[in-house]
Amino acid sequence: MELNQLMFFLLAGLILFFSVLAITSRKILRAAIYLLTVLIATSGLYFMLNYEFMAAVQLTLYAGGIVVLIIFSILLTSHISHKFEQPALANVFAGALTGILGCGVAIWSIIKFPFVTTTQPALVVDMKVVGTQLMNTGDYGYALPFEVISVLLLAAMIAAIIIAKKGN
Amino acid sequence: MDFNIYDFTSFTTWVHNALTSSMSPGWAMFVELAIVGVVFIAFYAVIGLYLVYAERKVCALIQNRKGPNRVGPFGLLQTIADLFKLLMKELIYIKNADKFLFNLAPFIVIIASFMAIAALPFAKGLHAIDLNIGIFYLFAVSSLGVIGILLAGWSSNSKYSLIGAIRSGAQVVSYELSVGLALLSIVIFSGSMQLSTIVESQANGWWIIKGHIPAIISFLIFLVASTAETNRGPFDLAEAESELTAGFHTEYSGIKFAFFFLAEYMNMFIVAAIAATVFLGGWMPFHIPGLDGMNHVMDYIPPFVWFMGKTAFIIFIMMWFKWTFPRLRIDQLLKLEWKYLLPLNLMNIVLIAFIVLMGWYIK
Predict the structure, then answer these.
(1) Is the omega angle on the peptide bond into residue B234 within 30 degrees of 0, that is, cis?
(2) Hey, are the CB atoms on A64 and B150 less than 8 Å from each other?
(3) Which residue from B minimizes the CA distance to A68?
(4) Assembly ipTM
(5) pLDDT block averages, 10 residues each, chain A of length 168
(6) pTM (2 decimals)?
(7) How far, rounded to the nearest angstrom, does the alpha carbon of residue A45 sit from its chain's CA centroid?
(8) Could you give the domains of chain A?
(9) Which residues pair with A71 in a beta bridge?
(10) Which residues from B are below 8 Å from A53, CB to CB?
(11) Which of B108, B103, B120, B100 is nearest to B43 (CA)?
């Protein structure tokens, strides 16, 4: 087996193993740490693909941003002795069914997708291209989604301030 | 063997060729990774120990004392003796702590600083990985260390630890923004996120000189924000010893405490190295275009010495901060970031974009 494949199976194995742990753990902070491992291993996959920009985005936004926020809110709300109870059997069954269905859809679409194999060397992702494309209004440009998301974030921030102010 | 202290490229190629000629490429890569890892661990230990020594000496200088002076000449072996003391101390286990997370936390802090050190350019050709998004990568991994601090605080099951961790979380999450935006200003100037390109772009002058006023503003913001991000005084609320015993690492003892301690000093080294690379030219000697005689003299000093010298200078400033200013309160800390540094930073970014657009900087 090539090193590349070995690395892929290692990372994929980590992702699968810790994903299962993250949803089965009864302790909330441990679940958050398992989720962190999943997210870091995913950024490892991006590094393997030589897509360093995406890997760093994954690390900053998910591992450094969202998981820190999750852990922070756990710190403020939950006590160390707190443990979740075993969910009802019906809930477990419904959750498993949804998971299997989602998994089926994902696998089906991956198998259906016409992947083209090539022997050409991997392209370097130029930051300038990413930047101009993000602000582009032409074909495949992301100017509109970018603006819409910023409006959404503004609304969320105003809502957060109003909730925090309480009353006045 | 071809060893040149001014350019390590030939040396690293020689190592690479020697390895690939004697084993398969996969194994050669594995051995190279192991060599880099061992070198970094050794570097980490030496720098960490001597930063502790430097801190005690700087503190003593400012407080008009002598500092460590008994163990070895000038007390140079003091921190090594301290290390052995810490290694032999008992590891105390807390009865009602979450043991798995309690033991994991110091390693997360250490690993985060290790990931950052891998991307630093120490000298020409002495660079473990030269990612094309170098600065962004450093910014990304430096935000992981706080997870270890938060975990340590929560899993210790102690009120002091928890308060320290929550303070630290609020602090790092807010000051991260200023660190990122201050670095972004130099990305705009140099037009690249690759650290080697940024260093090369300073061959005719460092960015703090070429970028004049806005670069100096960014540099000052970076100094303040990165001191806060590394949880150092005057921003050391997370471990404020007068009110929280020792903050998030109150319950740690022996070598696990030493890990937090070492990581704090290494994080200081890393942010100082980033500041030196981005604002002060990294390993690039001090050049003034036109003065060829002086430029040649500067070129005789090896790049590694330049890099370490600049880093040491910034570390000295950060230690100076710690022993000069009193500790901030949490509301003052958050006010400083959200009401002063962040708006200033955003305006500075717009100013820099305008200056670069008009070409009003030294090219």
Answers:
(1) yes
(2) no
(3) B147
(4) 0.81
(5) 83 92 84 90 88 86 85 80 79 91 93 84 76 82 88 92 78
(6) 0.87
(7) 12
(8) 3-123 (1.20.120.1200), 126-168 (no CATH)
(9) none
(10) 132-133, 136
(11) B120
